[in-house]
Specification:
Chain A has 290 residues and is α/β, with parallel strands linked by helices. The first copy, chain A, contains nine helices and 14 strands. A six-stranded mixed sheet of chain A has the order 3-2-1-4-7-6, with helices on both faces. The longest helix of chain A is centred in the last third of the chain and has 16 residues. The radius of gyration of chain A is 20 Å and the shape is globular. Chains A and B meet through strand 8, strand 9, strand 12, helix 4 and helix 6 of A and strand 9, strand 12, helix 4, helix 6 and helix 7 of B.
């Protein structure tokens, strides 16, 4: 049995560090020290500080820390990718002490995609038995990730800019004023879902504004309607047919909004805690690695 | 025969003024004095200044000047709307001297839409014989307008946020850096068009970025690809079947980008000059009005 280790989910803007022992997190820290906040020398210093704080343990990093803009570029593992492929592609920054895991790439004639970090949750959900080894999995967020898993391998995946577009609309668009407040499940959200599944996003967005101008929708419903519209547009591109199971790995409240949209679009949502999936996935990579 | 008059296309950020005599523009001025640049008292002063400059002629305003944020709110004319309906709905700010034409609204159980200004070009294109009286017309722009005309009436119309989304992506998104430069017709644009007609916009946008990260698309092609993607997404929602005629009222270079996408999607584009359509439309309204 392996001893304890430190896992760092080191993203673009956020960082989460876990001290893991026997497959369970004994300490967790979350902060805004993502790679955008780092100078080139900071990475080694930050890693040393974590190890000093949590008992000189070996440390495994995943996420954007392995990108060109991160600590060291670690080549992507291509689809179909297994958890063992991830371990094999992991690069030691300091032998036996500090390692960075790769991301996954998908290259098909008509479509390319990349991820760094989300693959750990996908594999972890399957490894921990939270999701079957052959199914559609989703991680909602700024960039929503959808993975098709077959025999515990990621065969194909796709990223949607759902969260980023929502944020751009709220901060900078003509719709900004009508998108104040938080989205919530209710009639306006469900109207948005039904509109979203038409896949006419560019005109549906303007329609939301026109409905308010014409008093066909009350102020305060805008955020819920547009959230439902964008999420359904995302979901509709992925689910196939009635009763398609979708395993949603995420955090409240976004995971419940996705679950509601999946249900309205005749899918069957299953919620999985993202921290549990991460700890399971990173533990499994570590187990193969050392 | 009516005497000369002044027509002002008074939009949100831009203003175009025309001195019109016998259905032709003898003077044109274009500036950035849209309604956002106006204080409440400025409208009357600006109108008086135009009239003083161009010979004390009567003045007809169209566009956002008739909205709640403009000079005076003029109620929308509902679909199906004719040119005569527009004249009937025109409001005199000063009897016989200064008038503001209404916009058009579309209210259906599942969809609402509004326009203020574009209806003049749509009617003008038909009145001048530049487009048939029963066809699909389009005005590309920040908010692209699509109108279905039947017996010279606007039966239905739809607005897409195509240009605004493109601008948000260029200025504020993760894709900003890869969208530098101008879009042009070519292989990257056509690839974008083919991707856009899948109607999976949120994931197609991220795919554009992944293709650059994986060197599947060269830097400098981003603007053309994403432009093709957005325009095709807009066009695909509107055209129906092979050889659908689309009358595009616009200005270079955007009108030619739309024409190229329409052709690739098996439609038949016809280009119409927007100033010619405007002058024809506003002259016809004036003729009915006085």
């Amino acid at each position: 049995v392996n001893g304890p280790f430190i896992a760092v989910d080191w993203g673009t803007t956020n960082r989460r560090a876990y001290r893991i022992e026997n497959g369970r997190a004994t300490h967790v820290e979350r902060d805004g020290r993502g790679i955008l906040a780092m100078q080139p020398d900071d990475f080694a210093r930050e890693a040393a500080a974590l190890r000093a704080r949590w008992g000189d343990l070996p440390l495994l990093c995943v996420g954007m820390v392995g990108s060109r803009q991160g600590w060291r570029e670690v080549p992507y593992v291509p689809t179909p990718a297994s958890l063992a492929n991830l371990a094999l592609g992991t690069v030691w920054v300091e032998r036996g002490t500090v390692a960075i895991a790769p991301g996954v790439s998908h290259v098909a004639p008509e479509r390319c995609d990349v991820m760094r970090g989300e693959e750990v949750q996908f594999f972890g959900a399957v490894a921990a038995g939270l999701a079957p080894a052959d199914r559609l999995l989703c991680q909602p967020g700024t960039h929503s990730k959808w993975a098709r898993v077959e025999a515990a391998r990621i065969r194909d995946f796709s990223t949607a800019m759902t969260g980023e577009i929502y944020s751009l609309l709220r901060r900078h668009s003509l719709l900004a004023k009508m998108l104040e407040g938080e989205a919530a499940i209710g009639p306006a959200f469900q109207d948005g879902v039904r509109e979203g599944c038409k896949q006419t996003l560019l005109s549906s967005l303007f329609g939301a504004r026109a409905a308010q101008l014409l008093n066909a929708r009350s102020a305060g419903e805008g955020a819920s309607f547009v959230s439902g519209l964008l999420i359904a547009s995302d979901v509709q591109s992925q689910i196939r047919g009635v009763n398609d199971d979708v395993y949603v790995i995420g955090d409240a409240p976004l995971d419940t909004l996705y679950a509601a949209a999946i249900e309205t679009l005749s899918g069957r949502p299953h919620l999985i805690d993202s921290a549990a999936a991460f700890v399971a996935g990173v533990s499994k990579i570590w187990e193969v690695l050392v």
